[in-house]
Amino acid sequence: MKELMSVYSYAKHFKKDMYKAIGFLTASIILGVIPYYIIYHIIMRFTEEQAMSVLYLCSMAGLILICLLLRTHTQYAGLSASHHLAYDTLMGMRKRVADKLRMMPMGSIKKHSTGSLKKNFVENIEDMEIILAHAMPEGISNLLTSLIIALTLFVLDWRMALLALAVFPIGILPVLLMIRDASTRMGPYYQSSKEMNENIIEYISGMEVIKVFNQTTSSFKKYMTSVDNYKTSTLDWFKVSWTHMTVYSIVLPSTLLFLLPFGTMFYMDGTLTLGTFVLCILLAMSMGLPLMRLVEFLPIFPNLQQKAQKIEQLFDEEEMVDGHSHAAPQHYSVSFQNVAFAYDDKEAIHDVSFTARENTVTALIGESGAGKSTLAKLLVRFWDIKRGEIRIGGINVKDMTFETLMNSISYVSQDIFLFNTSIMENIRMGRPDASDEEVMEMAKLAQCHNFILNTEHGYHTVVGDGGDKLSGGQRQRIAIARAMLKNAPIIVLDEATSATDPENEDKIQLALSGLIQGKTLIVIAHRLSTIVDANNIILLDKGQISAQGTHHELLALSPLYQKMWQAHAESMNWDIATKEGSN
Ligand SMILES: Nc1ncnc2c1ncn2[C@@H]1O[C@H](COP(=O)(O)OP(=O)(O)OP(=O)(O)O)[C@@H](O)[C@H]1O
């Protein structure tokens, strides 16, 4: 229950809307009970053989009509307040999700599969609507109404009140059994639904691999098994709950079961007047529905409790602490000082120290898995380091606000992601206030203008999910244009031209060197020929710096660099040889 109540903390006007919803819904139920009281009066006048004018009967009918109209109106007002509260809360939760994801280290986000994140942040939050808009306000108003009617019955005749309420313990028993079963059955139900979500996303995302390796049958089987498990656990739960639901939905509204025979007995032996008897019957009948509605919501709670728990678990996950310094650094030299970092328990970076100075190009090189991309990601604070310091212009990146840090760096990662919108808008994300002309200017420098003009709608061509309507090299060049448009003082390019043909790569390098004035450029590259002119080359080996210096210094001093350069030169010769051979 604590988790469920905490859900409301995301609503802006929780109390005001909640009171309004409960107030109006209670009023609507009471307005539904008043006609019973009016009917009681008419019956009593009949039995006492009092004269009733047509005017009296018409005014009573009119009163009943007014009650019913007011009931509809208050019900509408109550539900409108409860839905307002519900969607206000859901909006608060979704905003919290967006903030949470921004503040979580990438490692913590990637620990969860896309399927389970989607389930948690989309479906589970959506499912909270039923409790926020219905279960809570309607449950409380039905409880209040049942209590008011029960109290009136006690005031009229305590024996009749007990007789009317006698069905309650019998009716509530199956509900309690359902809640008990739910605690054991909800686990497998929830797990199977999570697995199904994960498998659907994996099946769709992995379709290319599935087709190429002809894994359609086995992957489809995995997906279908999870769908089947979900079906089994859901039906399993329904099989149990249907029996319980049938019992309580029959028993709970049967408030006359004991009241009618025993009430007749009391009337016969003269301990109950006819008037009280009739009124008790009408009140007991009007109590059946709110009682039933009240109990109906109870079994929903364990299910939603599980979901609220899962949402809260994610919200409780570790966050990175935003720095306080809004001040832009005085200069943009980047320095790593004795930096160590571990993914989970495995240390990937050990004691790394180097400086990338302003107005220079620093290249990070090394074999695959040496830790180059990790260093780039640590600079943009996708993760926090374990030991040491990373400073920009002398300020520790942890002390800077994320906004200041992100304004300082243009980062092009290995995994280029483009949004499913036009090429123009994808590039403009680098600087949202850039004009079309500025976007095109950058596209020209990043060598994408010509291919963009050849696409179906030019700059207005929509690039597809993640940019999948473009080639890898085209995506890379758009990402470079986006980063260049941002015009941040530090540019980090992680294999940013690896899928680009050598001719375009040279042109991009030229454009970058034109833009480097006053900037700090850090490049990660496999092709050593692209970084021979770098001012400083950092050679990484198994997460450590093996050597650093210019190309000539490293050639003279580092056996590892000599080996890498030799391998590179051989591959270039082989490349030239095969090209000549084919001509
Ligand atoms: N998200 C992650 N979780 C756990 N380990 C990781 C993760 N990313 C990288 N690693 C590990 O950290 C080490 C350094 O990886 P990194 O990606 O930085 O290497 P790299 O030099 O950029 O390699 P490449 O040239 O192939 O891109 C590797 O051993 C890798 O397996």
Question: Features of this protein?
Answer:
583 residues, alpha/beta, ABC transporter transmembrane region fold, Rossmann fold, four-stranded antiparallel sheet, 21 helices, 10 strands, binds adenosine-5'-triphosphate, transmembrane helix, ATP-binding, membrane
Written account of the structure:
Its main location: membrane. One of its GO terms (molecular function) is ATP binding. This is ABC transporter ATP-binding protein. With 583 residues, this protein is α/β, with parallel strands linked by helices. The chain has two domains: 2-315, Up-down Bundle (ABC transporter transmembrane region fold); 334-582, Rossmann fold. It has helices at residues 2-7, 14-47, 54-103, 106-110, 114-156, 158-165, 167-205, 207-212, 216-251, 256-268, 274-297, 300-315, 372-379, 402-408, 423-428, 436-445, 449-453, 472-486, 502-515, 551-557, 559-582; strands at residues 334-343, 346-356, 360-366, 387-392, 395-396, 409-412, 490-494, 520-524, 536-541, 544-549. The strands form two sheets. It has a six-stranded mixed β-sheet with strand order 6-7-8-3-9-10, with helices on both faces. The chain has a four-stranded antiparallel β-sheet with strand order 2-1-4-5, covered by helices on one side. The longest helix has 50 residues, at 54-103. The protein is elongated, with a radius of gyration of 36 Å. The model has no long low-confidence stretch (mean pLDDT 84).
